[in-house]
Amino acid sequence: MYIVKIGGSVITEKSRYRKMRENVISRLADEFIPEDSILIHGAGSFGHYIADKFNLNDGLGDSNRIEYARVALDLQELNSAIIRALIEREKPAITIPVHSFHMVGEEFPHRRFKDYMERGIVPVTYGDVVLDPRKGMGICSGDQIAFHLSKALRPDKVIFVTDVDGIYDRNPKIYGDAKLLGEVSGKEKLNFSGTVPDVTGSMEGKLRVMRAIAKLGIEVMVINGLVRGRLRRAMRGEDVKGTRVLA
Ligand code: IP8
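^ Those are the sequences you sent over. The predicted structure of the assembly is below.
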């Protein structure tokens, strides 16, 4: 069984509010292998833009209810585009939005994901707004969902699909001489300066989640979703350019 997490920066233009990359969504839907898989996607400019502007991760305030509702709607629209792209390719996919069933601090309800997979339907979920017992509302990132589902369902592999080839020793978008790392464990000294954190964390935080999944004994890969064929080949178990994350 595979869990695939597609980053928001792959399927949207992060600097333009609600701007999808339709051609990338179509191609990744082509490449995605539906058998025994769960798909999680990030929010990109359908979530982070408003979440950042109205501090949604700080919790529910007197005046930001409407923004929570708007982000939930925007994310449903992004999610619908992905579900539609899969269904158009005869890949049965169904959405399981986290805001509808999960409260932070409670055990993550994984059972329905399994139920759909057992029936040959791909459960698709995404980083979302979420109920929080302390601060009213908050945000649950796709990476956190990947961790919860990995812990409960023990997939063979978790593939993180990003907009770069993998994990580098420093930010490849700033440093031309950044070196792609074939493997990353806790030992390397990486330089994360210059990476722009979004509301759910920095690259450093994402790597922490990936390593937590690897610690469960699960194979974790980071690949580039903007390069044609990489997702398909990674899902077929072939060797692809990218980074293996070790515990
Ligand atoms: O893009 C964030 O999910 P992520 C969800 O997976 C929101 O970090 C609402 C910004």
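The first strand starts at residue 2 and ends at 6. The mean pLDDT is 94.

Shout if you want it in another format.
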